[in-house]
Amino acid sequence: MGPITSRLVALNSTQGWIAFAAFGLVMAVLVPVLNLMVPPSSAFHVPDYVVALMGKYLCYAILALSLDLIWGYCGVLSLGQGAFFALGGYAMGMYMMRSIGERGVYGNPLLPDFMVFLNWTELPWYWLGFDQFWFAVLMVFAVPGLLAFVFGWLAFRSRITGVYLSIITQAMTYALMLAFFRNEMGFGGNNGLTDFKDILGFELSARSTRVGLYVSSVIALGLAFLLCRFIVSSKLGRVLVAVRDAESRVRFLGYSVTNVKLFVFTVSAMLAGLAGALYVPQVGIINPSEFSPAQSIEVAVWVAVGGRGTLVGAILGAFAVNGAKTWLTGVAPEVWLFFLGGLFIIVTLLLPKGLLGLYASLRARFASVKAEEKRHA
Length: 377
Hints:
Elements: H1 3-9, H2 14-36, H3 48-72, H4 81-100, H5 113-117, H6 133-157, H7 162-181, E1 193-194, E2 198-199, E3 202-203, H8 207-233, H9 235-252, H10 257-283, E4 285-286, H11 293-306, H12 312-331, H13 336-350, H14 354-376
């Protein structure tokens, strides 16, 4: 484990917990207070659109954490995180579609509008149960987790690694995208699921509901971070890093590399599903474009920019890259993809440890300069 990673793993230090608590308080308390209690005329007011935007970024940060867990610590570059993210989003979207009931355009209490439009006469069996929130939450974790478990079991026991694994995870994502585009699948086809009204009885258009979803995303990110930190700080985490650095040697020592990879890959998929479930009610739509392989590649860019194998870097990268995307797509949308590609090349060639690695090296250099000056004083 490198010096950057080893320093960042120590969340049990006083400084680490203070930083974690401060970030949580600012995000979960200060932002909602400035949005709900400070008048819009004040310079300290946080507009509604900023809260919604920050909620999206928080979901992206959870998604980035899920990839960093499997890629940064186990060395498995999964380009299928977008699929797990979308599946979690569809599970939550199906619950909210069932919650619309007679308030839909066609007033059908049993069938979503798109099914009525396509002349469906009954609800498909795989939609049953999604009128219950607890069942939807269960599916948010179970569907991505089960897919990852089956896919990982087949791939890891066959000892598929490296670029070959990345390619087949991307192929899986692309295949799911093509499937969900089909109207016969019963997920809204090209348009996906949208026109949601409420969640747990709370109107999605209400400011309080928006803030509640935002705070839920903050809490979910904090819990996801603690879970990932617990895993990478444990004995299992040390085995993960060993698998990343010398898989054949770990296998020779008697460890089940397949089981280790399978466990962390499944956990990673479930975290991605959670991110998708929180994302959908905040943006108001889920469609097959979320399965696009380009989405999964973007997640890898976030992690690489922030600093792979640090967890904190994954969160930083998600916020930094998506903040740049929001600004650039508004100012010069035609430049964004060139910027993203150039950013990935620059980080790969010049900043292999990402922004956190750059910060650590600058800090070490500054400390050495100060020590040198102190010695000559």
